[in-house]
Amino acid sequence: MKLHEVGLPNEQQRKAGFEQWLSSLPGPSWLTMQGKDESRHRVVVTLLHGNEPSGVRAIWQLLNCPPACAVTTHFCIANLDAALKDPVFSFRHLVDKPDLNRCFGRPGDSLSYHLAREIEDKINEISPEAVVDLHNTSGDSPPFAVALSDDHEHQVIASLFTDKFLHTSVHLGALMELSRPGQPIVTIECGGLQDEGADQFALEGLQRFLTKINIRRSRPKVDMDILHNPVRVKLAAGKTICYHSRKVDDVDLVLSKDVDKLNFGELKAGTQIGWLGKKKLDALTVVNGLSDCEADAFLTIAEAD
Ligand SMILES: [Zn+2]
Predict the structure, then answer these.
(1) What pTM, to 2 d.p., does this model score?
(2) 137 CA distance to ligand 1 centroid (A)?
(3) Interval 57-98: pLDDT, tens
(4) N or C: which terminus of the chain carries fewer CB neighbours within 10 A?
């Protein structure tokens, strides 16, 4: 996998349509659209996960009907190999390659790590004033932004897309972890994979991101809903999980099939989210990026089942 600089689609490619154009790209691709101010740059990254297409669909719309870009804007369409594997947009990453959005800022010697470093180098080379990385969530969820900092510039970028902002300290090897003062990077989750509104959300947000004259001098939304210090609940190494509507023998964690309905809402204490096996809470680890967490500080086992 190597990052290819490619031109904007020509008229023939535009007529042939989105999927034809996508499959004609030589691999991970970098496209550049000139802006009114050519001395400043912004970057839009998408398809780090091959099954999250809202960002690239929105980019296709913008390439066909280009807005007046305020500054020179670059588009990075990353994990095309996974995206184009049949059936298209079904694979987060190829089974023999690590998750690309877990390879940033981490040592590693496979092609995914090399591509992550190439994307990082390219971004550093042009010193963009803002970077957004567009994703979809696997389950049902409203759109939201994620960043490692909740300072003014990260909030302003998030505001161009959404009023929901997750300020996290959890490090996973994601692109947004390369964010630094003057070169802010914000992840935008455009909504669920199956959510029909997610493509439109991505398009409208990108139109604002591309045309905003001065991001740094803008103000974030006053009613921004910022969630601080989220915890990540993970299946412990070697433990098993399945989805079912009842407890399943010899499985360490069973989640109900519609557990994603609980996403991004407020859960009352006592809300059941699944069934634990014999290892009980040892099946789970909880991290917040700052210190070790005990699972029983967040989760309780109700014995009556
Ligand atoms: Zn993703």
Answers:
(1) 0.93
(2) 6
(3) 999 999 999 999 999 999 999 999 999 999 999 999 999 999
(4) C
